[in-house]
Write a structure and sequence with these properties.
Layout: E1 2-5, E2 24-28, H1 32-37, H2 43-63, E3 68-75, H3 76-80, H4 84-103, H5 105-109, E4 112-117, H6 120-123, H7 126-139, E5 145-153, H8 155-168, H9 176-181, E6 193-196, E7 216-219, H10 229-240
Parallel strand pairs: 2-3, 2-6, 3-5, 4-5, 6-7
Antiparallel strand pairs: 1-7
Length: about 250
């Protein structure tokens, strides 16, 4: 297990303090296909099992005082460059689980707003778009918690889109706030913690590159279908115990 700090230089406002519960946690669920291969099963079997872990981790998030949780569901390449059978399984899971989320008592009890960011309108079939749209519509008025899914997402496309909008609007005084206001993630706070499963400590398609500038990165060897709520809670506890120095 490796812990890496990504930091930027800034003038500290005071001495480092013990960290509190992270406000915004991102999970990159890697390892579904390797998990299936290790059991002699096709890749889609890993995605089916991984979907069960997603439900469990969302429940673990609710048990913590985490207000924003973002889950990497698929990149653009995941939906355009993988075998049709595997992508078809992802689409079926999206339809099933977003329909379920729209009706889930715990979502409504916790006043959780669901967002879906990425090119999902371009890259998913209409039945999936309807299911995603239903989950968004049924929760759009909630403000207490925020559950975001990245579907057909690429951080490089997000940044290019933001730069293009700024250029088209002829904005000359470009600040950090200007860039943030043009990102797909403009309604989300900066990321405090990124957890990547699967034992391969690398980034993916420029994941939220602006928002992770000060995030802590946690890489675990555990493949996603074996990543249970207990390990998630332990990682959150470890985060709380450390000091955040922001490069100071």
């Amino acid at each position: 297990m490796v812990l890496i700090h990504v930091t930027r230089v800034r003038i500290p406002l005071g001495p480092p303090k013990n960290m509190s519960t992270p406000q915004h946690v991102v999970v990159v669920p890697d390892g579904n296909r390797r998990w299936a291969k290790g059991r002699g099963r096709p890749p889609f079997f890993g995605h089916i099992e991984g979907a069960k872990r997603t439900e469990e981790i969302i429940r673990a998030v609710f048990s913590e005082d985490i207000t924003h949780f973002t889950f990497w569901s698929s990149s653009v390449a995941n939906l355009t460059a993988r075998p049709p059978e595997e992508v078809g399984t992802l689409f079926s899971l999206y339809e099933e689980y977003f329909t379920k989320l729209a009706r889930e008592d715990e979502i409504h009890k916790n006043k959780t707003r669901i967002r879906v960011i990425g090119r999902w309108r371009d890259l998913t079939p209409q039945n999936v778009q309807r299911a995603i749209g239903l989950a968004i519509e049924k929760t759009q008025e909630y403000t207490e918690r925020h559950l975001t899914f990245l579907v057909g997402y690429d951080g490089r496309e997000e940044m290019l889109n933001a730069i293009g909008e700024i250029a088209r609007n002829s904005v000359h005084d470009v600040t950090r706030e200007t860039i943030k206001s043009h990102l797909w993630t403009r309604e989300l706070p900066a990321v405090d913690l990124v957890i990547r499963t699967g034992g391969e400590p690398h980034w993916s398609a420029g994941l939220m590159m602006w928002d992770v500038a000060d995030a802590q990165l946690h890489f675990t060897e555990t493949l996603w279908p074996d990543f249970y709520g207990g390990e998630f809670s332990n990682i959150i506890s470890s985060f709380k115990s450390k000091e955040r120095r922001f490069g100071a």
